[in-house]
Amino acid sequence: MNRWERIFAVALAAILVTVALWPGGNPTAAASQTKPDPLAKAARSEKGGWVYVHLEGAPEEVGYQHGYLLAREIEEALRVMSKFLLHTTERDWKFYRESARELFWDKIGDEYQREIEGIARGAAARGVKIDADDVLALNGWIELAQYYVPSLGPRKENAELHQTPPGSCSAFIATGSWTRNGEIVIAHNNWTDYLIGRHWNIIIDLKPAAGHRILMDSFPGFIHSGDDMYVTDAGLVVTETTITQFKGFDKTGLPEFSRIRKATQYADSIDDWLKVMTDHPNGGYANDWLIGDTKTGEIARLENGIKNNIVERTKDGYYFGSNFPVHEKTIREETTFDPSNPASSPNARRKRWEQLIPKYRGRIDIEVAKKFMGDHYDTYRKRWGASANTLCGHVDADKRGVPEWDWGSYYPGGAVTSKATSTSLAKRMTLWASAGHSCGVSFDVKSFLAAHPTYRWQREIAGDMRSRPWTMFSKSDAGAQARSQSRVRRVAVRQ
């Protein structure tokens, strides 16, 4: 092309652009120049086995960002969950979609409805076949599968069915003279089936248009943490452990996943948070919650049932959980739990907490908290070695399993992530997180299934779960990661 041809080509291109943008010209082309970028404030990165996402804006915006940036993870989570629940509860995904719509949709409020619809739209923009009912059922699967379905009664005799609400997690919170420097220290590890837990590797930095900024670990498609670990810019830190063998489900009650999100997003204090969490609970995912206010140094424990919502508070002390119901009234009225059985995982871990925390009085800090999360002492067998009774749970290494949860011998479940933070870290909205067993032991699915053929039904939905090092995450990660998202954002705008 000679000089004059190049001049002509440039002039022609300018004329065509002018015509396209002129009133009455090409409206599609004009709109494309001004269409807002839905991912302009969002970001995604990966480190330490975690996927970190920053979400910011109105409910429909943070929902779309979530669905778009985590579309592949959501698609895989739905594939795994639908097959897992069909096998363990004998209900198909259609049942969970319909039940979630009937029991939850009208109770979660406009804000979270819009966010859930946004997640579905964002994932659909990446080619995932999904709608709001899928996302809603995903958010409520714990309440539906582990509480609502058992309340309906068993469909038939099947030893592999999960018909008893399980426990999940080991956690503690301490403050005052019990910690180094007197600040709050909190830590938690998530116990669940490995085939699910290996996907529980999302860190969400959520900056909503209303309420407080939240840093939390999470699961693909969740509007909450789910296992749970939260840090907010109101200075609150929150976690929990589940109440083993809780009984009862109130269909008229408010779902746990929306209560915890609302409480954490809007609370300025422990009192604010308690008010939301105790407002008509449905019994789904009944927990002993641990909460701290880094502004005051106060910590609290809420045993959050249906009939009983019992609160303890202190500015100099500690609380811990390992899936045992704390109060005799709760045990008697709302569980079938046996607190006198020393062989059970909740009781054995409770005894371990009673040994560890006093031993470290005045020295508890983040490094000690990490050590607690990887602890392998079995108080029932009185020996070191990973088992269902150790704070870092390895039920796959335990012949007894956890019969209280319908987890059989060598069941492939246990601790799948660990998190920890403190007052000084929380004030910067920062936490430490470890994907997989924080003790350093990895799970190899091929060798496990060869040794335990009972669980071969999991082959197509299970996978390896590598132990990853402790990694720090903070709200400050968002700015750096946003700068690396230009290519992803341009793709999103073209959708």
Description:
Helix 3 packs parallel to helix 6. It contains 18 helices and 17 strands. It starts with a helix and ends with a helix. It is α+β, with helices and mostly antiparallel strands. Strand 9 and strand 10 form a beta hairpin.
Strand numbers in spatial order across the main sheet: 1-2-5-6-7-8-9-10-11
Strand content: 15-25%
Q: How many extended strands?
A: 17
Instruction: Figure out the total of helices.
Output: 18
Largest sheet: 9 strands, mixed
- The radius of gyration over CA amounts to 24 Å
Low-confidence runs: 1-32, 490-495
Q: How much helicity do the residues have?
A: 25-40%
**Cα distance spanning the termini:** 35 Å
Task: Label the structural class.
Answer: alpha+beta
Query: What is the 3D form?
Result: globular
| Overall average residue pLDDT | 91
Main attributes of the structure:
495 residues; six-stranded antiparallel β-sheet
Q: Topology, please?
A:
Layout: H1 3-21, H2 27-34, E1 43-47, E2 50-57, H3 59-69, H4 71-89, H5 93-103, H6 109-125, H7 132-139, H8 141-151, E3 170-175, E4 185-193, H9 194-197, E5 202-208, E6 214-218, E7 229-232, E8 236-242, H10 256-266, H11 270-277, E9 287-293, E10 298-304, E11 309-314, E12 317-321, H12 328-334, H13 345-359, H14 366-373, E13 377-378, E14 383-384, E15 413-422, H15 423-426, E16 430-435, H16 445-451, E17 471-474, H17 477-482, H18 486-494
Helix pairs in contact: 3-6, 5-7, 6-7, 10-11
In short:
Helix content is about 35%, strand content about 20%. It is α+β, with helices and mostly antiparallel strands.
